[in-house]
Amino acid sequence: MSGKEQQALRDALEAEYAAVYAYGLIAAHSSPELRRTVNEHTAAHRARRDGTVDLLTGDGAAAPPPEPAYTVPVEVTDPASAARLAVVVETDTAVAWRAVIEHAGTELIRRTGLEALTESAGRRAVWQAAAGITPATTAFPGQP
């Protein structure tokens, strides 16, 4: 794995760590109707986090540990602000995974990045719809 590929994966891992952290806030403030969605999205980010750690360490690279806490760019006080934070989280992870695709040197890393980008874009669409943002999707997800 090249240095750029490893760094892109480390950056994506950092985005996944931040996503798992943020989903704790999202869970605390989301509406009961979205509880199942929050749980599914949290589980997806945890699985992607763990898979990314495995990719890095399986190649002999160091996987950075998570930070003790993360700054969230949205003050979360109610279901509407929780949905807005979820949109930001999914946008950030999409950007990180798009960078993995751009720096991928192997089919495995390219496929992993594409799957993660696609999943983030799908989750973002769910949250944009929940937040009343239209359109719920974007043509090219993951563009910074």
From TrEMBL:
Gene3D superfamilies: 1.20.1260.10
Organism: Nocardia rhamnosiphila
Superkingdom, natural source: Bacteria
CDD domains attached to this UniProt entry: Ferritin_like
All copies of domain DUF4439, residue ranges: 8-143
InterPro entries named in the record: DUF4439, Ferritin-like, Ferritin-like_SF
Pfam families associated with the record: DUF4439
Protein name: Ferritin-like domain-containing protein
